[in-house]
């Protein structure tokens, strides 16, 4: 049995689908009730309470660990989850980290994630670490304004990074959970090309078949929206990257293709699959 945390999110859903399609028994985890995967079960648990995860980890062979929201805040203790997983006999851990760990190791949230990577490496379990850059699904932040006013409001409109489709992250994670060739690897995951927010607005217009405008937000306006769903320090770290990405942050990584044997999906492909959210 494989435990998938973050199971109802952008990565967790396609990851669970890929594992079930491969014939694996999956236990999905999130704080809210959800439909169980075929042949498996859904466990309601909060990762902020690692002890409460123990019944879910019992008997699992592998764990996909994805932290959300306040678990990134200073003072959270997600390392305890790794310790309890190893003590429960979990033999393989795939950790969802972030590219910023490599490109900007000094932000508060990235120092914490780097430390968690080290805990995973030293846990005694087999491991793979995934370091994705920005997600295509961040465009869902714009869904309401596109629906109601046909406009994307975002900061740094002409500064881009090679954002990745979270479905590709899910498929890479499934491969890492199932295939020994990925043990001990650290994969940097990006999309196929740099794309700016203004170009994303144009791609959304393309899939909608109607015009979508662009309004540039100030950094402060953008942060005010982001802190509704993430700690302020993570919002600051993210805005630092979006405002002035380094060379390493605009580089297109070969790792999705190395793992999946195909190129990563484009933002337009993500937008086409998710067009209903913007109508
Ligand atoms: N967005 C980016 O550009 C970017 C870039 C690099 C890395 N990342 C990382 O990617 C991750 C987000 O992935 P995603 O987009 O797939 O997530 P998502 O769509 O926001 O979904 C989050 C999932 O985690 C569950 N969850 C949230 N808090 C939980 C808790 N305390 N205990 C148990 N389950 C919890 C949610 O379900 P419930 O609400 O029911 O609990 C949901 O299933 C974060 O770790 C983020 O740092 C993001």
UniProtKB/TrEMBL annotation:
One Pfam family, short name: NAD_binding_10
Q: Where is the NAD(P)-binding domain?
A: 6-179
Source domain of life: Bacteria
User: Which InterPro entries does its entry note?
Assistant: Ergot_Alk_Oxidoreductase, NAD(P)-bd_dom, NAD(P)-bd_dom_sf
Write down the PANTHER family for this protein, in alphabetical order: PRESTALK A DIFFERENTIATION PROTEIN A, PTHR43162
**What is the name listed in the Swiss-Prot or TrEMBL entry for this protein?**
NmrA family transcriptional regulator
């Amino acid at each position: 049995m494989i435990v998938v945390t973050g199971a109802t999110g952008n990565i967790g859903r396609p990851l669970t689908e890929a594992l079930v399609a491969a014939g694996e028994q999956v236990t999905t985890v999130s704080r809210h009730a959800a439909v169980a995967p075929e042949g498996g079960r859904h466990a309601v648990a909060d990762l902020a309470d690692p002890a409460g995860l123990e019944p879910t980890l019992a008997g699992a062979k592998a764990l996909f660990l994805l932290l959300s929201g306040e678990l990134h805040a200073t003072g959270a203790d997600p390392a305890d989850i790794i310790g309890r997983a190893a003590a429960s006999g979990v033999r393989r851990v795939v950790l969802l980290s972030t590219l910023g760990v490599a490109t900007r190791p000094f932000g508060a949230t990235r120092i914490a994630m780097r430390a968690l990577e080290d805990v995973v490496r030293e846990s005694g379990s087999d491991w793979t670490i995934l370091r994705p850059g920005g997600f295509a699904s961040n465009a869902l932040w714009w869904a309401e304004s596109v629906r109601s006013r046909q406009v994307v409001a975002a900061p740094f409109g002409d500064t881009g990074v090679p954002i990745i489709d979270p479905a590709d992250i899910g498929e890479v994670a499934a491969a890492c959970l199932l295939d020994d060739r990925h043990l001990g690897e650290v994969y940097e995951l990006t999309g196929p090309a740099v794309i700016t927010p203004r170009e994303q607005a144009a791609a959304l217009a393309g899939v909608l078949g109607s015009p979508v405008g662009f309004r540039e937000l100030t950094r402060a306006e953008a942060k005010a929206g982001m802190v509704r769903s993430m700690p302020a320090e993570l919002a600051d770290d993210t805005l630092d990257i979006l405002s002035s990405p380094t060379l390493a942050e605009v580089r297109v990584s070969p790792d999705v293709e190395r793992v999946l044997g195909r190129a990563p999906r484009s933002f337009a492909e993500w937008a086409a699959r998710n067009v209903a959210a913007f109508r």
